[in-house]
Amino acid sequence: MDTLNMRTAGEGEPAVLLLHGLGATGAVWEPLSGLLGRRVLVPDLPGHGTSSPLPRYSFQTVAAALARALPGTGPLVVAGHSLGGVLALELASGRYDVDVAGVLALGVKVEWSQDDLARAAAFAARPVRVFETREQAVQAYLKVSGLLGIAPADPAGLRRTEDGWRLALDPPVFGVGAPDMPALLATARCPVVLAAGETDPMSRPGQLRELDPDAVSLAGLGHNAHVEDPAAVRALLTRFGV
């Protein structure tokens, strides 16, 4: 049985489910969670932090693991960053018996070249790297999560071994592939807001507007907009009554 670490806090409906991006943990949402003033559910995705790995990673298997771990049956507003944004759209499809009232998909990479896919596959196939010192592992965690210089490392993202330190991240997660964004948007059974930081190199606003003319560009922000300016992202959630 898979075990998924779920942070919960607050009260009020609809609850907000916050899904982090590849390489990070739910800790990246702490500044935003404090601004919401309602019930929040913040998991570490499978293969991240203190959550168990999966035998196989795809958007579907990860979304199914999330659905199994969700408490109750009430409506959820789901905000997801990068990989988490794709998973939010998966959950909104109706295939997982989750009542999704709205989706904020932030910083989703929508254009993938063959080189992009090849690099991701290479990362997925790499053995776990063990670092001599914790400081080296911290730097690796911050780089892979895109948090270098903007947030501290979550201790749950690191593990001590007999030989040193490693990331908690399960490398095969990199093999999830490219999302079919047009299909995900077409099957979503709720309102969806696409957004990205104005300077996000992975999810350029112009690319998002080709999918949705109303996609939001967050001025002056990069890929981890929810960490750089939680209030700006919180403002987008008011569109769903949050």
Question: How are the elements arranged and paired?
Answer:
Blueprint: E1 6-9, E2 15-19, H1 30-36, E3 40-43, H2 59-69, E4 76-81, H3 83-91, E5 100-106, H4 114-125, H5 134-145, E6 158-161, E7 164-167, H6 181-187, E8 192-197, H7 205-211, E9 216-218, H8 225-228, H9 230-237
Parallel strand pairs: 2-3, 2-4, 4-5, 5-8, 8-9
Antiparallel strand pairs: 1-3, 6-7
Short descriptors:
single chain; 242 residues; alpha/beta; Rossmann fold; 7-stranded mixed beta sheet; two-stranded antiparallel ribbon; 9 strands
Give an account of the 3D structure:
32% of the residues lie in helices and 18% in strands. With 242 residues, it is of the alpha/beta class. The chain has two domains: 6-113 and 177-240, Rossmann fold (3-Layer(aba) Sandwich); 115-171, no CATH class. Helix 1 (30-36) crosses helix 9 and helix 2 crosses helix 3. One of its GO terms (biological process) is acylglycerol catabolic process. InterPro entries: AB_hydrolase_1 (IPR000073), AB_hydrolase_fold (IPR029058), AB_hydrolase_sf (IPR050266). Keywords: Hydrolase. Residues 16-235 form the AB hydrolase-1 domain.
- What proportion strand? 15-25%
- Assign the CATH architecture of the largest domain: 3-Layer(aba) Sandwich
Helix content: 25-40%
In whole angstroms, how far apart are the ends?
A: 33 Å
Task: Find the CATH topology of the largest domain.
Answer: Rossmann fold
Tell me the number of helical segments per DSSP (H or I, 4 or more residues long).
9
**Low-pLDDT windows of residues:** none
Strand order of the largest sheet: 1-3-2-4-5-8-9
Question: In CATH's first tier, which class of the largest domain applies?
Answer: Alpha Beta
Number of domains: 2
Q: State the total count of DSSP E strands.
A: 9
From the alpha carbons, calculate the radius of gyration and give it in angstroms.
17 Å
* Tertiary shape: globular
Structural class by helix and strand composition: alpha/beta
How can the largest sheet be summarized? 7 strands, mixed
What is the chain-wise order of helices and strands?
EEHEHEHEHHEEHEHEHH
Can you say what the CATH homologous superfamily of the largest domain is? Alpha/Beta hydrolase fold, catalytic domain
Mean pLDDT: 95
GO molecular function: monoacylglycerol lipase activity
InterPro entries: AB_hydrolase_1, AB_hydrolase_fold, AB_hydrolase_sf
Protein name: Alpha/beta hydrolase
Keywords: Hydrolase
